[in-house]
Amino acid sequence: MNIPKITKRFETSLASSLSASGTSFTTVSATDDDGNALSGLYALSIDVGNADVEDVIATVSGTTWTIVYRGIDADAPNTEVAANKKAHRRGAPVVITDYPILAVIRNILNGDETLPNKLQYASHPTISGNQDIPDKQYVDGVANAGASDANTTTKGIVEEATQAEVDARTTTGSTGAKLFAPLDKIRASKYHDYAADAGSNDTYVITVTPAPTAYAAGQVFQFKANTVNTGACTLNVNSLGAVSLKMNKDLDPVDGYIKAGQIVTVIHDGTNFQILSVSGKPSVSQTGEEIYAADSVGTDAYAVTLTPAPTAYVTGMVVRFKAGTANTGAATLNVNSLGAKTIVKNYNSTLADNDILANQIVEVIYDGTNFQMISPVAISTATYKCGTTTYDVSTASGSQTIAHGLGRTPSLIRIYATYKPSGTANLSVSQGVYNGTTTACVSGESGSTVDATTHTSSTNMVEIYQQGTTNTQKAAVSVDATNITLNWTKAGSPSGANINILWEAIG
Questions:
Q1: What is the DSSP string of 475-504?
Q2: What predicted TM-score, i.e. pTM, was given to this entire model?
Q3: What is the CATH number of the domain that holds 501?
Q4: pLDDT tens across 119-132, in order?
Q5: Which of 206, 341, 485, 489 is the most exposed place for a label (fewest CB within 10 A)?
Q6: DSSP strand pairing (371-373 vs 203-206)
């Protein structure tokens, strides 16, 4: 505890009564005999000269006293005794007492209390002879003078390195002691020195200082290659083992990716060394071998091998290949044995015959599911065909095939059909178109007193009416690389003549 203050000849009295449990009180005066106002911590006796005398330790501000200890024990100035706490009347005498002050000082000297205010010198004293209590400066001087420099097995004196000494890896300071590097002067915890390669082709070898004891993710190394790589290559650091060098995360470097004399920066990813430095070879070669190869199969299942080999299909991947043969309908492409993927045109349409011709350069892009054909489909010399045929109106429901001769599935067909029963003036006309997805047809009958209505259809390609809507022949259409197929449905009993058909097919 703090030592109460001492002042001479202070006497006053309580300005109001103090109960046995009270924690504060006021006095008539708080000024010593010299007229100085009291402030801080004091030891007081209340009711001196009668049986209710009580010693207290309190702080004062003005004439108000805040009790720190009261009912003080006779042997312990910072211990309260309940029986010693008394009630005091107004006017009870109050005087400074020296007992608690002397008791506190006694306890500090005996080691029973903590010294509240440390002893200080205005300047370092001169120590001579057999002094019992030298100051810290003297003790430090004696210790430093007699201590040895630190080493790996002995504690001792070291010197803090400057930034320049850390960067230069200086080991001994100006005092002759070993240097230590503060953490705030170490530039990177996983960075290692540059070293020149001492290996042979594709097996780079370096030795750095300080020597790492194991590979760890995040380690960075720089080395000067003494040979050009010829494909896949490795780096061995301080004989820890050869680790594969990779470009673009997980691809083996292509020939010439690392040049002789090139400074190469790599970082360990936990498995391989990823190359961070710029390649010594353009990222896209003049041969285009990264995205181009010739098909090696000779069927609709096209297959190519790219260099370097991609490890997986990725949306947006562009591939160019030289087809070994013309396709006959649906076709696929297999890149580096990653699996055959369907080639489509117009976003999601299956290829028609000869959309790809033998020796054609084809460009495709992977959309996450298929290879969409970016280059235009091959243009056949037979892009347009037309002809005429007939169909017996009385024939039962069935199919009629028309060979269009394009050698590929048409992109558009048109049908124009007329029908005139013998012995009548009626004429039924139908015209339809089909674009591979949608059918549209208009039809009607002239000269009929039964039905002169114009008809439209989105399902049939041909609709022929005979005197009304009861007797009809209607045909839906389908196409392939060889034929136009009209699927006729007969209703009622149309009779009397053939239906004349004019057809057109566009490749």
A1: EEEEE-SSEEEEEEEEES---SSEEEEEEE
A2: 0.34
A3: 2.60.40
A4: 565 666 666 655 55
A5: 489
A6: unpaired
Radius of gyration of the chain (CA): 54
pLDDT over threshold 90, residue 318: yes
Residue 184 lies in a domain: no
Compute the distance between CA of residue 26 and CA of residue 66 in angstroms, rounded to an integer: 9
Query: What are residue 208's phi and psi, to 5 degrees?
Result: -115, 160
Q: Does residue 321 lie in a domain region?
A: yes
CA–CA separation, 85 and 363 (whole Å) = 104
Q: Which amino acid is at 78?
A: N
Characterize 456-489 residue by residue with b for buried, 16 or more Cβ atoms within 10 angstroms of its Cβ, and e for exposed. Answer: ebeebbbbbbbbeeebbbbbbbebeebbbbbebe
One domain for residues 395 and 436: yes
Each residue's pLDDT tens digit, 227-240: 999 999 999 999 99
Among 87, 110, 133, the domain-final residue is 110
Phi, psi of 277 (to 5 degrees): -75, 160
Distance (Å, rounded) from C-alpha 315 to C-alpha 312? 10
**Same-domain status, 69 and 94:** yes
Structural domain count, the chain: 4
What pairs with residue 338 in β-bridges? none
Domain limits for position 397? 384-506
Tell me, yes or no, whether 354 and 458 share the same domain.
no
Q: Which residues of 132-166 are buried (b: 16+ CB within 10 A; e: fewer)?
A: eeeeeeeeeeeeeeeeeeeeeeeeeeebebbeebb
Q: Residue 100's closest CA among 127, 126, 80? A: 80
